[in-house]
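> example.struct
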């Protein structure tokens, strides 16, 4: 049974609150970033810049002679632009069960590996500001990229702003579970359709099929206490 003692519930964004961005569009963003510097990058490098935690900053410098910080800033700006297009068109849509979260009386927050500017756009575009006390995405810098989950940096920043460590982090990846553990808080793994067959090496505190399941579990636990 889920604990009823949490002061706050913090959510990942992509795959939890909103549909993941199509990988092909993110590859497009990387291509745009290289094109800005008149560079045609090999496809393997483009994919690494999207798919891997070990980002190709050394290759960008050594193979293409680019400053990693300048290239990454351009890559982030292109990704923000493309995702805004996807959100406006409805291709990258908010999950319907997000509305269930508004039944909770916890402080709510968002911590994402996506760009902070993208998270800010989502919050504004979908009118979520009144429901979430704070939200964090990564800074558009090399340092910001290196602080992505499973590093707990942004989770801890959100907890500091919320003024609590009695919190639950809800995500859809192993990185989310590990980041929560490193931040010293419980985790809930959301096994949506795109994660049906995912095997985790880290154990979440709870697992739910969707956000409705999470909210119902909280309500049921409180009824038992009463």
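> example.seq
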């Amino acid at each position: 049974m889920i604990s009823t003692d949490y002061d706050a519930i913090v959510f990942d964004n992509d795959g939890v609150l909103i549909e993941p961005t199509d990988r092909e569009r993110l590859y497009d963003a990387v291509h745009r970033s290289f094109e800005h510097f008149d560079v045609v990058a090999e496809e393997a490098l483009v994919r690494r810049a999207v798919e891997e935690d070990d980002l190709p900053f050394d290759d960008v410098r050594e193979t293409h002679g680019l400053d990693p910080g300048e290239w990454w800033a351009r890559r982030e700006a292109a990704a923000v632009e493309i995702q805004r297009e996807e959100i406006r068109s409805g291709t990258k849509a908010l999950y319907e069960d997000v509305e269930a979260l508004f039944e909770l009386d916890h402080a709510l927050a968002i911590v994402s590996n996506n760009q902070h500017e993208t998270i800010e756009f989502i919050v504004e575009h979908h009118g979520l500001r009144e429901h979430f006390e704070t939200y964090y995405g990564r800074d558009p810098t090399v340092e910001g990229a290196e602080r992505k989950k499973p590093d707990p940096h942004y989770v801890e920043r959100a907890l500091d702003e919320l003024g609590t460590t009695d919190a639950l982090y809800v995500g859809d990846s192993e990185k989310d579970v590990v980041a929560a553990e490193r931040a010293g808080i419980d985790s809930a793994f959301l096994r949506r359709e795109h994660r049906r067959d995912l095997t985790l090496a880290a154990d979440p505190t709870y697992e739910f099929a969707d956000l409705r399941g999470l909210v119902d579990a909280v309500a049921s636990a409180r009824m038992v206490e009463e």
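> remarks
Residues 23-89 form one domain.
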